[in-house]
Design a protein that fits this description.
alpha/beta; TIM Barrel; Lyase, Ornithine Decarboxylase, Chain A, domain 1; 7-stranded parallel sheet; 6-stranded mixed sheet; about 30% helix; about 25% strand; binds pyridoxal-5'-phosphate
């Protein structure tokens, strides 16, 4: 049987591209016409596939894309084929990468004074007014100019003004997903104070959650990622976004398990009464982390089926205890992992993780289908 005919036996990952476009447009509506909506497409567009996602986002009006690494930037530039779209490298400028960044028309997000000096030196050697974004650390303590570096730069700003075009000054929220978290206002205030020194730049502060929280945080550009892919940017309310990802996996076997018998490695789940189990084609090699063992649930025709025992590399076992006897599924039937009864966020919450992690771990063995 040719390979493409075997795909029906694989787990089915469906990605709704019109929903992705619609989520982008909702962000644009939310921020209004004077604020640009860029897209965070790092990590293969949060696992959904950058080669499919980026053109759809571009078609929906997106002109600026944020990736994490140089390799991701080069891949995206090749995909676009021209320099019409801006591609920013969030992880910054690594030493000796100046030529290659420039060659591929990528824009570095400058994360330290040292990186700024490297980029300025390169501009002096090649051509003036090279573009960059400048990341100010307002509280993540991860990347970006420290408060000391910022003060230093404020005293030397004229030195760089003639040689670099700092297009965007940006920062990143640590707690925007938590409504009313006091750290958000502290960061916003620090960002506003920093912004006052950069008269020729545009400003960008908000990620997905930030853009849905407060108009003052929109500035000239917002940089959503997760909400484009259907995750909930305001977890305390209903999700305003459309779901983008559905995943269903086949049952391989069904078996009865008598009371007192165990399931899986470590034998750490023991049936409290006689029960019916199904073994499904989904394991940690598919991105279904071991965190799901004895915690998560999947769905059969709307009935929750708890994952029992530990998740193994290629398989998991679910209990069919909640499914009426006349509706029990059979080998070949597809169990819902994400879909109408369970969002990516719901499953992540049961597993003790976040939707970002589930999406970026999506495995390579699925039959990926892009709905257009
Ligand atoms: C600097 C920066 N901007 C924007 C984003 C997008 O964030 P979110 O996916 O929460 O919208 C990220 C993601 O981590 C980021 O690191």
């Amino acid at each position: 049987m040719p390979y493409n005919q075997t795909r029906q036996f694989a787990a089915q990952l469906m990605i709704d591209l019109p929903a992705l476009a619609s989520n982008y447009k909702l962000c644009q509506t939310r921020v209004g016409p004077h604020c640009e909506v860029a897209a965070a497409v790092k990590a293969d567009a949060y696992g959904i596939g950058i080669s499919e996602a980026a053109p759809v986002l571009a078609g929906a009006g997106c002109k600026s894309f944020f990736v994490a690494t140089l390799e991701e930037g080069i891949e995206l530039r090749a995909l676009f084929g021209s320099a019409a779209h801006k591609i920013y490298i969030l992880n910054g400028l690594q030493k000796d990468a100046e030529d290659i960044i420039d060659f591929h028309s990528l824009t570095p997000v400058i994360n330290s004074l040292h990186e700024l000096e490297l980029w300025a030196a390169y501009a002096k050697r090649t051509r003036p007014y090279l573009k960059c974004a400048l990341h100010i650390d307002t509280g993540m303590a991860r990347l970006g100019l420290t408060p000391d570096e910022l003060e230093h730069l404020q005293n030397r700003i004229g030195e760089f003004a003639d040689i670099l075009d700092i297009e965007i000054v940006m920062s990143h929220f640590a707690c925007a997903d938590e409504k009313g978290h006091p750290f958000n206002e502290i960061q916003a205030q620090k960002f506003q104070n920093a912004a006052d020194s950069f008269v020729f730049s545009k400003f960008s502060l908000a990620n997905s959650s930030g853009l849905f929280r407060k108009d003052d945080w929109h500035y000239d550009m917002v940089r959503p990622g997760m909400c484009l892919y259907g995750l909930n940017p305001t977890p305390e309310t209903d999700n305003p976004m459309k779901p983008v990802v559905k995943l269903a996996v086949p049952i391989l076997q069904r078996r009865p398990l008598p009371e007192g018998k165990s399931v899986g490695y470590g034998a750490d789940w023991v049936a409290a009464s006689d029960t019916e189990l199904a073994t499904i084609q989904l394991g940690y090699a598919d991105g279904f982390a071991r965190l799901a063992g004895n915690k998560a649930k999947l769905y059969w025709q709307g009935h929750p089926c708890p994952v029992v025992g530990r998740v193994s590399m290629d398989l998991s076992v679910i209990s069919l205890e909640n499914v009426p006897r006349d509706l029990l599924p059979h080998p070949g039937d597809m169990i819902e992992v994400f879909g109408p009864h369970q969002s990516v966020d719901d499953l992540a919450c049961d597993m003790g993780t976040i939707g970002y992690e589930l999406l970026t771990m999506l495995g390579k063995r699925y039959n990926r289908r892009y709905e257009r």
